[in-house]
Automatic annotation (TrEMBL):
Belongs to the insect chemoreceptor superfamily. Heteromeric odorant receptor channel (TC 1.A.69) family. It is found in: Cell membrane. It comes from the Eukaryota. GO terms for molecular function: odorant binding; olfactory receptor activity. One of its GO terms (cellular component) is plasma membrane. It is a multi-pass membrane protein. This is Odorant receptor. GO terms for biological process: signal transduction. Keywords: Cell membrane, Membrane, Olfaction, Receptor, Sensory transduction, Transducer, Transmembrane, Transmembrane helix. InterPro entries: 7tm6_olfct_rcpt. PANTHER family: ODORANT RECEPTOR (PTHR21137), ODORANT RECEPTOR 19A-RELATED (PTHR21137:SF35). The chain crosses the membrane at residues 28-47, 67-85, 125-147, 167-186, 257-280, 292-309. It holds the Pfam family 7tm_6. The lineage of its organism: Eukaryota, Metazoa, Ecdysozoa, Arthropoda, Hexapoda.
Length: 383
């Protein structure tokens, strides 16, 4: 899969995505075993933490401390379910980008696509480095706890782990669950970010094609090639309308696939951020502060990835109308002006990534999230 190769490689490493090239029976079976093992570890971590909160926790301080990782695990499991159940639809999204009218047809469009691909890869690697650094710090603290004879995480297990074998098996399971949870989060965030920016790339390619319509016939590359892969006998603007509708359907399909991921991530971030701030305000040891500051910062960045990507799509979809208005549309025929007007009218309604009617992924929503987190933090501090 050439599109978003790095992002899908991370997806495959998480156990949620069997590479399409692995079609043999043996590779499919081996990857299925790997996926089942990963899901088992995440469910084990979820249940043991839930039982600890229900059976052991008896005060607000312990509840906020335990809920930090618990809500992150819930969010990670939601991402796993989405990836496993939405595989065919994700493949369909990639196929949409690889066939007309989204397929690239000239060097300028390839340059536009390459620029967005470089941006996606660069930001994905930066996020990978940040999240990996945070995970390594958490794992170092967990290993120190194991060496002191304690489980790496606060959980409740329905058996006696006082024997060395039980203790080490339980500890290793918890450590592996944290590792897989980190990979799940990294791969999902970077993939969603990449798929969102593919929408921006297609909108810019559409703008480029519309601008080429007004170039003089003698200009290099102005004439549409007779073997144009998306020529079907329609008018020269009708196929651009189809391209615009295809982009909108692509964004809607992407939103439908990751709708619940957006919802759980948004509200999990509110709970984690306010709980982290409360924990920092009541635990002033160096180890707690160092660990929680990095974890809280990663949560800020995690939800920012979604909101920033959604905001970019909104702005780019609105800019399409301005780009059309700046064309020499007065030189077109009446029918072509009407077709341009159809695109302009539709582009006045920006493409938005939402979760139901509650959350819209934008920088404005990100600001509201920070305000809600701070308000919840004040409530916890006064309790």
């Amino acid at each position: 899969m050439r599109i978003l190769s790095l992002n899908f490689s991370l997806y495959a490493a998480s156990g949620m995505w069997r590479p399409i090239e692995w079609s043999s029976v043996g590779s499919t079976l081996l990857y299925s075993v790997y996926s089942v093992f990963m899901v088992y570890l995440m469910i084990f971590l979820l249940l043991t933490q839930f039982l600890d909160i229900v059976l052991v926790v008896d005060n607000v301080k312990d509840f906020t401390t335990n809920s930090l990782l618990f809500v992150s695990v819930v969010s990670a499991i939601c991402k796993i379910v989405t990836a496993l159940t939405g595989r065919d639809r994700i493949i369909s999204l990639i196929e949409v980008l690889q066939r007309p009218p989204c397929k690239l047809v000239d060097q300028e469009e390839m340059d536009i696509q390459a620029r967005f691909d470089r941006s996606i890869r660069s930001h994905s690697l930066s996020y990978l480095f940040l999240a990996t650094s945070s995970a390594i710090g958490a794992l170092m603290g967990a290993v120190l706890a194991i060496l002191q004879g304690q489980l790496p995480l606060r959980v409740w297990v329905p058996y006696d782990y006082s024997s060395p074998l039980s203790f080490w098996l339980t500890s290793i399971q918890l450590l592996l669950a944290v590792v897989f949870g980190t990979i799940v989060n990294i791969s999902t965030e970077t993939l969603v970010y990449g798929l969102c920016l593919q929408t921006c790339a297609q909108l810019e390619i559409l703008t480029h094609r519309l601008q080429k319509v007004m170039l003089p016939a003698e200009s290099p590359g102005a004439r549409e090639r007779p073997d144009d892969v998306w020529s079907n006998g329609a008018s020269r603007l009708s196929r651009h309308i189809c391209h615009h509708l295809c982009i909108i359907r692509y964004a809607e399909s992407l939103n439908e696939i990751y709708n619940y991921v957006f919802f759980t991530q948004f509200f999990a971030s509110i709970l984690v951020l306010c709980s982290s701030l409360y924990h920092l305000s009541s635990h002033l040891t160096f180890e707690d502060v160092a660990t929680m500051v990095v974890y809280t910062f990663c949560m800020f960045v995690q939800i920012l990835v979604y909101c920033w990507a959604g905001n970019e799509v909104m702005l780019k979809s609105i800019d399409l109308s301005d780009a059309i208005y700046q064309m020499d549309w007065i030189l077109m025929t009446i029918s072509e002006q009407k077709e341009l007007l159809m695109i302009m009218r539709r582009s006045t309604r920006p493409i938005k990534f939402t979760s139901s009617f509650l959350v819209t992924l934008s920088l404005n929503s990100y600001g509201n999230l920070l305000k809600a987190s701070y308000s919840a933090f004040n409530v916890l501090q006064q309790s």
